[in-house]
Amino acid sequence: DRWLPLQCGAMHMRWGCCAVVAAVWASLGAEASAQSALAGDPIAITRAAGPIAIDGNLDDPGWQGAVRIDRWYEVNPGDNTEPKVRNVGYLTYDDRYFYAGFEFEDPDPSAIRAPYADRDNIGNGYDDYGGVVIDARHSGHTATFFVVTPRNVQYDSVTDDASGEDSSPDFFWASATRTTARGWTLEIRIPFTSLRYRNVDPQTWGILLYRNYPRDRHYQFFSARIPRGSNCLVCRSNALTGLQHLPGGGHLVAAPYASASEIAKPHDKPGSPLVSAPVRPHAGLDVKYTPNADNVLDFTLNPDFSQIESDTAQITANERFALFVPEKRPFFLEGVDLLQTPIQAVYTRTILSPDWGGRITGKQNNVRYTLLLASDKGGGSVVLPGPNGSDLATQDFKSTDVVGRVKRDIGLSSVGMLYTDREGRGAATSDAGVATNGYNRVVGPDFQWRPSGSDAVTGQLLYSATRTPRRPDLSTEWTGQRLGGHAGSINWLHTTRHADWYGAYQDLADGFRADNGFVPQVGVRVVSGAGGWTMRPKGFLSRVRTFLTADHHADRTGALVSREVMPGIGMDTRWDGFMQFRFMDDRVRAGDALIGRRQFGYAFRISPSRRITRVALDGTTGQEVDFANARPGTGSTINLNVRLNPTQHLELAGVESQRVLDVHDGPAATGRLLTSRVSRLNGTYNFTARLFVRAIAQSTSTTRNPRLFRTAIDAKASNFSGSALVAYKVNWQSVLFIGYGDNRELVADRSLTPSDRQFFVKISYAFQH
Description:
By secondary structure, the protein is mainly beta. The chain is built from three helices and 42 strands. β36 and β37 form a beta hairpin. The radius of gyration is 27 Å and the shape is globular.
């Protein structure tokens, strides 16, 4: 009953969403002062008194007179208390760069956790690091992390108070560190060309100085107070004043690349000898031009997206919906936070193989915007959503893809508009000779209203118009038919020192499609909510949170698709540990049947030492649903993740996942239905923070009992993939890669035979002016 007010109809949602958007716009004057009320103490910066060499020493003339920040707060596990160890930061700038220096004291420098690693490969909480969080637009919403470990391993990311943190974007910057008898020191130099700020003088930014300190617990120190129960981080930044006469733009980066690959595939049927195709050379160019500090133009010609890492190991057996894999390609990551909305109508991995792409991103009159245009050669998959599950269709034809987004910040709140378009090219022609290539167009507003640091109301309303391609050979849905429908979402989150809760409602019409996005379920109305209570005891446990979540999915006729009630408890422990236990009671539709299941879920994570940096275990066990055959069963899923650092240079990471499913459907249909496993081992030797050698081996297998399936199916499916890579990185865009890949699959004689083999080399260099 507590979520009943959110159960409005589709028409009420349309007018309600628009009314809230209008209210947010109208509250411009009131909201403008909200940011300053939450911000930390101001910091006044001055120009450097002389040159600064980035070498880890803070004795250069430029540091003399730099503003000193020695007031820090322990925000975890302490509640804005005096930090466990001493931290001092220094800030200054000159005509080209922003500088940050740090002195991090440590009573036992030998206990510092900082193995050599690749860029961005910093453990979430279990490595030492420090740096700055910069909100150069002083928006109170979005900021960029620049943090470094004592081994000078860099990590950068974009964080948004509404959508979270994304480590995919990379920036040009420099750093240096030194370990001393009293701890370690850090220098950071960030070119103004790597930051996006307003064209005003003087400037006011938001900034947080940060240190991560993992020892007996996970300690976090900031230069500003972060109250418990706050639903935002960037909004708490210190106001940084005194920046004057910053460069106004004109920065150009041109990054040409050249690569070559040799691919070998079976001569005939699977299992036949591999035959190498001629070596294929590739060349292309990425260009980024900054006409002024607040606008960026990106263009790519014949882009190379080989930077994509191997996709995360995931079990796909007995899944109803398509699985999400994050974007990692640089061209799509300028202003990445702009593309994140409550309904994921933009998922740039759907643009698989573009011939070219162009993009403009920037801010004018307090409105941020991005417009992306790309020509895709095709070959990827399109999600075909439904109320009970989703399918995939191969797009073996070309398309032109457009994504447009505008967003206006109003104090701590925001309003925005999104438009996407996918126009098929060369898909098919009807019997009358009329092209039926298909299209998908999506448009609609969104908003987030933050009346306080404890409340956030977020909503979005989209409408799509679709004509499917005439390709029934690829999908039974693709008949050239026209589809249309809306998708609406509204969510209210409330957080306090002890209590937190949220309520949400979603309404997705049967005909809604987002071919440039990731919306695997449509034709449903979803009501969900959760509440929790947090306590912070002293001793082995530092945080205990009890919670209850519930959700209800119904199709457009009101028939139940699924419902779940889940109570549970989560705890933070020593050694950056975490434990969670939960009980899940749900009912879910499989075929025409509603099947109930009750499961016990658990999760454990610990980081006990510098050598054993991470051990994580999670899973479920109990009643299960056989979705392929629409009947009840029992089963379990377990996932084990381990990261070891036997030396400061060597990292070993392993993943082992398993799912088993048994059915009990009478004497003739009882037993083990399937066992699915994914095993992955990643070994990396980092000679320095720039040079490493990596080898990955991954095995996936699914064993089934065909006698227990109602349709014909193979008894076993299995494949193995292995890869080796040598990489040298001057920076994120000046790289040398030499690699080898080997894939094998199960054939009729039940042996793993080569399915393809590849050698490749790539070199790219970023020229900057």
